[in-house]
Amino acid sequence: MLTAKDIMSTDCITLTPDTDITQAAKILLDKNINGAPVMDGETVVGVLCQSDLVAQQKRITIPSFFTLLDGVFPLSSHEDLEKEITKIAATKVSEAMTQSPTSVAPDASIEDIATLMANKKLYTLPVIDNGALVGVVGKEDVLKTLFKG
After folding, report:
1. How do the residues of the chain divide into helix, strand and coil, expressed in percent and rounded to 5?
2. How far is C-alpha 106 from the chain's CA centre?
3. Among 41, 45, 62, 129, which residue's CB has the most CB atoms within a 10 Å radius?
4. Domain chopping of the chain, boundaries
């Protein structure tokens, strides 16, 4: 059975929270990768993906409300709107990245990785062993397993 350690990239390209967002976009495009772990020292604090950067070009979603007995109730939280605005206006990686990212262990099975990616729409997963970044599994790594055999 294939595991994360069998398919992961160990030559990890990482970013820092203070990396300029345009520089981060250039790195992802130049290296032809979907995303990269964001490191604060030796700790993975986030993941920045191309989808986070694409989100900067979208329109702000105006919150919907409904009324009931003369009361006005938002259908989305004020916090969600603030996060969306922060992401759209991001100038640093820390403002656009997904914080506290989902990660996998080196012994995670390919089936578990694929399920996680498909169900949660996560396509860049840091591989963490004893608190340290040891690799990254991207959607391309999973797809390449279809051609081995």
Report:
1. 40, 30, 35
2. 18
3. 45
4. 4-63+71-147
Closest by CA to 97, choosing from 47, 56, 36, 22, is 47
**What's the confidence (pLDDT) of residue 86?**
58
**Paired strand residues for 66:** 73
Q: Which CATH architecture has domain 4-63+71-147?
A: Roll (3.10)
The reported pLDDT for the residue numbered 76 is: 58
Residue 133 has pLDDT above 90, yes or no: yes
Torsion of CA 32, 37, 40, 43, to 10 degrees: -140
> 87 versus 97: which is more confidently predicted?
97
Q: Tens of pLDDT along 11-58?
A: 999 999 999 999 999 999 999 999 999 999 999 999 999 888 876 554
Report the C-alpha gap between 6 and 75 in whole angstroms: 44
What is the enclosing helix (H) or strand (E) of 112?
helix 110-120
| Burial zone of 51 (CB within 10 Å; 0-12 exposed, 13-18 middle, 19+ buried) | middle
